[in-house]
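so i finally got all the pieces together for this one. its two components total, 610 residues if u count the protein bits. some of the lines might not be protein, just check the labels. i wanna see the whole assembly predicted at once instead of chain by chain like last time, that was a mess tbh
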Amino acid sequence: MTLVERSATDLLAQLADGSATSAEITREYLDRIESHDETIGAFLRIDAKAAMAQAAEVDRRRGAGEPLGKLAGLPVAVKDVLCDVDTTTTCASRMLENFRSPYDSTVVAKLKAADAVLIGRTNMDEFAMGGSTENSAYQVTRNPWDTQRAPGGSSGGAAACVAAGMTPLSIGTDTGGSIRQPAGLCGVVGLKPTYGRVSRFGLIAFASSLDQVGPLASNVSDAALLLEIIAGHDPSDATSLDVPVPAYSETVHRPLEGLRLGVVNEHFTEGINAEVETAVRAAIGVYESLGATVKEISLPHSKHAVATYYVIAPSEASSNLARYDGVHYGHRTNRAELLAELADERKGFEAAGDQASVDDMDSPLVRMYRRSRAEGFGSEVKRRIMLGAYALSAGYYDAYYLKALKVRRLIRQDYDAAFQEVDLIAGPVTAEPAFKLGQMAGDPLAMYLVDLYTVGANLAGLPGICLPCGFSETGLPIGLQLQAPPLAEETLLRGARMYEQATDWHERRIELKD
Amino acid sequence: MAITRDDVEKVALLARLRLSETELGTLTDELAQIVTYVDQLAEVDTDGVEPMAHAVEVSNVFSPDEVKPSLPREQALANAPSRNERGYLVPAVLGG
């Protein structure tokens, strides 16, 4: 089987000059998915007929000389967390197994307006909570580089499908690193925009002050193009920024003159894997050879970033997930079982003469909420809801939530000070390459600590990108993370592209056995 | 601040979650571990620091006070687990 060139930019050129049709391209990707996704598990749902119909329609319109969107005929996979009227949006949860959104999210609407072929919906950690995609209620996603290992998370499916050549582009979301970390572990490019750069309308919310939607691709130029399509002010999202979208796809090729690159002292203390450190430092060396000056900087509060994140994110999640109560949509517990359970409890208390407990019993409505939520949510989601409800509860709110918000401002101030001296910050995206599936089972805190290098950008609202900078001895990808000031995505992309042009990590392909 | 099983039960009610005995036990341990970890925030000097709830602060984002069509009733009810012609059906709010 011949593999179509994986670069989206090249594919668009072939589509434009007629040397390939969308039907041919889409068919090849669907075939590749069919051959390999049973092993990889990147996709929750594929509708091959619908995808081929979209492709055929674009080909027809192109043939008729009709105007076409900027992604016309190109397959794009979407993380199953963005509302789309043409499919269910499950967030990889049983809670939303049959949920059919009545409206398109703004990002999906923009992809449709760009005439992309929406090839499938990718697997994720349930409600975007996790760093390995193991928290999906439906299936495991395997890292294409080593199928015994996790692809990272929560956008594990979105990263894996690009890495495995199943789609040229995908859309993920990043709340604490969920685009950048899986991109790093899967050897692809992933970008988290500035908070507010991309609309969150129709993005099923995890943590509203941290969530952002972003592109994943096999190279920086493709990521720039996809970002340009999805970015922009949206009146339906009051937190979206009313600023124009630069032509990222055009400026990305211009190297940065006089780049001042910051390297954070605190990133290289104990705990980082030796191979990761070597690869990242070598990447910094490449920047120096390209004319950048490297400056050591400090982000003194970065050691508190994970703790700050794991107060704020669960707190916001506990509020956002309160809507899943079995009333309007989503899973509702079985009515007969619910009433039988209450009847049995009442009988028990009455038999014991315990009137106090009878009076204290849940009403049927409250018991419906409690059972529906207990049945619909997985254990990580419950853990975070509980953590958040605790941190927000009377007596603890000041010590936890309010305190975390103050430390958040200090974290942001550290970055602001650093960006007075440097244009970009370079460093690792994770302390280790891809870990084995099941490795963190029973140790939630260990999983949280994987987010060490990524949460800072979410807390501070800054853009960050991850791109490949090497491989471990056992052939596992190692990612380089760049961070930039708010709304400096152009600098971020140009800086990433500079490095990519001088190296060839992004050209290494996985040999998937048929 | 050590989390007790009692705390966890109270929070479970606030969070409208029903936990099994096993879950109560496991969650008490796990939450205790996590809370101990986040307790480190107490060491940070935050005197005079304003809380930051939003990363990139915008203010006074208003939309014009215009009447626009809202989601049609049928669409709003389309995912309902239980409904009649007008709205959602739920078990009794009061009483047993």
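The first strand of chain A starts at residue 43 and ends at 46.
The radius of gyration of chain A is 23 Å.
anyway lmk what u think
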